[in-house]
Amino acid sequence: MKVIAAYLLALLGGNTNPSAEDIKNILGSVGAEADDDKIELLLSLVKGKDITKLIATGREKLAFMSSAHGFVVATTATNGGAVAAAAAEPKQDQLEKVEEKEESDEDMCFSIFD
Fold it and tell me: Can you supply one Gene Ontology CC term for this chain's record (predicted)?
């Protein structure tokens, strides 16, 4: 994600064709490590493509996945209400894991919003 974010930041900054070095500079400016393989993969995937079209396509896919998931849940509910109710109800151990994660985030002593 950080490689994609750095690529998009370069585009927003006016660089119409960010290079691997541009992405490394952006990541280095915030102390993040740059993974050369991920950078090269991203650059090969977006080479010659319009980023706005890529983002629009991604949004369409996400919207489809969200609506498809709702269809599966609705179908399950009509075919077996007990199964759907059991699947929708979070288990106690799942709730404890979420609470543990929330507590561990506070131990980091910083926030991205500070």
Answer: cytosolic large ribosomal subunit
Give the residue carrying structure tokens 């991205």. 112
Distances 67 to 20, 72, 75, 83, 86 between C-alpha atoms, Å: 36, 9, 12, 20, 21
pLDDT-based confidence at residue 84 (cuts at 50, 70, 90): very low
Helix, strand, or coil (residue 51): helix
Distance CA 110, CA 53 (A): 36
Q: How many CB atoms lie under 10 A from the CB of residue 73?
A: 13
C-alpha to C-alpha distances, 62 to 9, 56, 59, 72, nearest whole angstrom = 22, 10, 5, 15
User: Taking Cα atoms as reference points, which of 59, 37, 46, 38 lies closest to residue 18?
Assistant: 46
- Give the integer Cα–Cα distance in Å for 38 and 22: 14
